[in-house]
Fold this sequence. Notes:
Strand content: 15-25%
CATH class of the largest domain: Alpha Beta
Largest sheet: 3 strands, mixed
Radius of gyration: 17 Å
CATH architecture of the largest domain: 2-Layer Sandwich
Bound molecules: zinc ion
CATH topology of the largest domain: Zincin-like
Number of helices: 5
Distance between the termini: 33 Å
Structural class: alpha+beta
Low-confidence stretches: none
Amino acid sequence: xxxxxxxxxxxxxxxxxxxxVRTLIEQGGLADALRRRYPQxxxxxxxxxxxxxxxxxxxxxxxxxxPLAKVRFDNTLHxxxxxxxxxxxxxxxxxSRLQAKREIRIATLFRAAPEAFLRMIxxxxxxxxxxxxxxx
Length: 136
Ligand SMILES: [Zn+2]
């Protein structure tokens, strides 16, 4: 039995919005509402396209943040780890220096999600290059 619960992704949003979303979920209308609001898909369908997408956002907004060694979709994140995205930094000794290889993984479900959702999770994981924890 999986005892890990999904994080409450709606925590922190205004109560009226949370109520609206929960009502749509109860009525089974959330997917249709989202499709109406975000009719555009996106072309970020492969690891290489995701890599370019993330690097472009990083270059535009976080140029001085440490470099990313790897960016990829991960189809185990959502199911196994209850995560929509992850960022990791694996430290290893290279000569006399300690080198951190930073990696961002995005749950594969965002390949088919609207671009606004992909952007949201990518921006979140990029922000972790600067801020490790989830505080205000
Ligand atoms: Zn996070």
